[in-house]
Amino acid sequence: TDTSGGGGSQCVKTTYSTCPDLDVAFILDGSGSMSRSFGNHPHGFYALMEMLKDWVKTIPLTGDDHTVGAASTARGGTFRITFIQFSKADALPQEDHPTGCAVGACTNGLLSGNLNELLGDISWHESHYQAEWTYLHAALKDVADNTFTTSQSPPHRQHVVVIIADGGLTDYNGDACSG
């Protein structure tokens, strides 16, 4: 259905039931450069958090949280999400995630389809903006080791990683995107 009004080819589904169930890990750039203005917003990282709060309210969540619904077999275009902020290269000794990624206090980096948990995690990231470097490798390792495991994400669910960053991605050996 074209809803753009301009004769474009935008396709909008009125139901998600024909879409696959998705487990989505958002890897969020927590580097210092994200503090720059973004469009009309004076701070890019906070603009991103506001956008995610609005967006997560519009998608069909499973309604399951990570403790009850991690092995849910509900089918039909539902979402479970986690948010991981990447910036630091090394974890502090008291941190659960060995790669040093900041995970929300509500889900601890596990997938959730519970709106209140997800909004809580976004708020946690908003108040714990790291403002350091952009170490992507650690965040990808964290998702592989802690999020998209068989016990957390059953095989019938599709795995999606969304990386949101404002520029170059740095790791110990330089640019994370170069071969």
Write up this protein:
- The chain is α/β, with parallel strands linked by helices.
- Helices cover 21% and strands 16% of the residues.
- It is built from three helices and six strands.
- The protein has helices at residues 44-56, 115-127, 136-146; strands at residues 22-29, 79-86, 102-103, 158-164, 170-171, 174-175.
- The strands form two sheets. It has a four-stranded mixed β-sheet with strand order 3-2-1-4. The chain has a two-stranded antiparallel sheet with strand order 5-6.
- A hairpin with a 2-residue loop joins strand 5 (170-171) and strand 6.
- Helix 1 packs antiparallel against helix 2.
- 35% of the residues are buried.
- Residues 1-12 and 65-74 have low confidence and may be disordered.
Number of DSSP helical runs: 3
Across the major sheet, the strand order is 3-2-1-4
Span between termini: 41 Å
What integer is the average pLDDT? Answer: 74
- Count of individual beta strands: 6
Net shape: globular
Indicate the proportion of strand residues: 15-25%
Structural class comes to: alpha/beta
Instruction: Provide the low-confidence segments as ranges.
Output: 1-12, 65-74
Secondary-structure element order, as H and E? EHEEHHEEE
Helix content: 10-25%
Radius of gyration: 17 Å
Query: What does the largest sheet look like?
Result: 4 strands, mixed
Summary, kept brief:
By secondary structure, the protein is α/β, with parallel strands linked by helices.
